[in-house]
Design brief:
Elements lengths: L7 H19 L3 E5 L12 E2 L9 E2 L3 E4 L10 E7 L14 E4 L11 E4 L3 E3 L3 E4 L11 E2 L10 E3 L7 H9 L4 E5 L3 E6 L4 E2 L10 E2 L2 H11 L3 E4 L7 H9 L6 E5 L10 H7 L3 E5 L3 E2 L5 E5 L9 E6 L3 H19 L9 E6 L12 E9 L9 E4 L8 H6 L2 E5 L11 E6 L1
Parallel strand pairs: 5-6, 13-16, 13-17, 14-15, 17-21, 19-23, 22-24
Antiparallel strand pairs: 1-12, 2-11, 3-10, 4-6, 4-7, 5-9, 8-9, 18-20, 20-21, 22-26, 23-24, 23-25, 25-26
Helix pairs in contact: 1-6, 3-6, 4-5
Bound molecules: adenosine monophosphate (AMP) and magnesium ion (MG).
């Protein structure tokens, strides 16, 4: 292993720095879309509250609005009115009285608490607090404007829009949202052995599985894939592929970055003036990973960030998840750029044959359980190397083995990345 290769942490931090640097200007393009189709997009302009939220002091219980100092188990209070959810706020609460109220209804002015229905003794027209029950001012209602005040900034741009953000936007009257345009990511697969999915591979040939896999990943991470024609392993083929004007924000090249005779991608990138930030990382799989930028060419609108992903399918998938996703997130305008590692508990020892020195990403299967106080259980999937798509398809995550460990023991808490 060459000692000048970067470790995982160093390489990941170079990627993170690049992602931070481009985040501010990466996204110039915005579009307005219906709220109903905004899930998974990135908010491009902040949201503001159109009204105080809640717009009135809102009861959170069915019960009786009253003043905490007036209600007790000794003195019965007359029930002088009733408000249902959806009705306008009632008249102010007269002194020494209670007002029947439903969940979601406006609490009358003057009341400072809502006593739960279950906590009172009721006659035809009075209530008193049930013995042993207490109530304090402020209980069981949310004050007007407690969540936000009219005009408040309630959501930042750069936030990823999911169901909760959609609900908030709906509550403030946004039927459309301004979002960033999806980045375009070009996929260039290379290799003389590759044939199309619908053809029968001749001797020594295999179907191109990376192109559809990478396209699926790019879509999953909120971008639009542009699949280019596969390039043969010749300098001419790569030069002409790279010369194509691709109006893409990022370029993913698969294959041709190892040290073999036909690994011609790096020299081809160098011929278009590429700047390399790293060429190889101490990881397995994915060690030959290349990261850099092609300077702006006359025909293209901007410089183009690229990754040269090792062609083995699991290497391509792992390096995409661990290194390309932060750049993709930044290009998409997201303010959440880091891979989402989560903790799990290892169900079985990993094999300890591997030499330490490489950070390893092993295809693994994580089982989520019902329990709220146990970590998900994870175990590695037996595999025949980084071309084993059968094993990979049984996995749902990568298990991370740090570079100073040869393996990890059953029961230990480990870091995984769901894929
Ligand atoms: P390379 O990185 O070009 O040396 O390729 C490493 C391994 O990955 C070889 O076994 C290739 O046949 C395989 N490979 C390369 N590109 C693809 C692809 N697009 N789809 C499936 N396998 C690939
Ligand atoms: Mg190749």
């Amino acid at each position: 292993m060459s000692s000048d290769l970067l470790g995982y942490e160093q390489a990941a931090s170079i990627v993170a720095q690049y992602a931070h640097a481009i985040r501010g200007y990466a996204q110039q393009c915005r579009e307005k879309i219906n709220l109903a189709s905004a899930s998974g997009r990135i908010l491009a302009s902040p949201l503001h509250a159109d009204e105080d939220q809640p717009p009135f002091p809102r009861s959170t219980r069915d019960g009786y609005a009253c003043r905490a100092t007036e209600v007790s188990s000794r003195i019965a209070l007359p029930v002088v009115g009733i408000t249902h959810a959806g009705e306008a706020p009632a008249a102010p609460l007269p002194e020494k009285s209670a007002w029947e109220i439903m969940t979601g209804a406006p609490v009358p002015e003057g009341a400072d608490c809502v006593v739960m229905l279950e906590h009172v003794e009721r006659t035809a027209d009075t209530i008193r607090l049930a013995p042993s029950r207490t109530i304090a001012s402020g209980e069981n209602f949310v004050a007007r404007g407690a969540q936000s005040r009219r005009g408040d900034h309630i959501l930042d741009s750069g936030v990823s829009i999911g169901s909760s953000q959609i609900a908030l936007a709906a509550s403030c009257g946004y039927s459309a949202l301004e979002v960033f345009c999806r980045p375009r990511v070009a996929i260039l697969t290379t290799g003389d052995e590759l044939v199309a999915i619908d053809s029968t591979p001749g001797p020594g040939k295999i179907r191109n599985s990376n192109a559809p896999m990478l396209a699926a990943l790019i879509q999953k991470f909120g971008a639009d894939p542009v699949v280019l024609a596969t390039a043969a392993d010749t300098a001419e083929a790569l030069d002409s592929a790279l010369a194509q004007v691709v109006h893409a924000d990022m370029l993913l090249i698969s294959g041709g970055v190892s040290a073999g005779k036909h690994d011609l991608v790096e020299p081809a990138l160098a011929r278009v003036g590429a700047q390399f930030y790293f060429t190889g990382v101490k990881i397995q799989p994915g060690k030959p990973l290349v990261f850099g930028e092609i300077p702006r060419r006359p025909e293209s609108p901007t410089a183009q960030v690229f990754f040269g992903l090792p062609g083995n399918p699991i290497s391509s998938a792992a390096t995409f998840h661990f290194f390309a996703t932060p750049i993709l997130a930044a290009l998409a305008g997201s303010n959440e750029i880091h891979p989402r590692f989560v903790l799990a508990q290892l169900a079985r020892d990993t094999d300890r044959k591997a030499k330490p020195g490489l950070t390893r990403f092993l295809p693994a299967h994580c089982t989520f359980n019902r329990s709220v106080d146990a970590l998900p259980q994870v175990e590695t999937v037996p595999w025949h190397g980084s071309g084993d798509l059968t094993a990979f398809a049984q996995s749902n995550c990568f298990l991370v083995i740090p570079e100073d460990k040869s393996g990890l023991g059953a029961g230990s808490t480990v870091r995984i990345l769901l894929h």
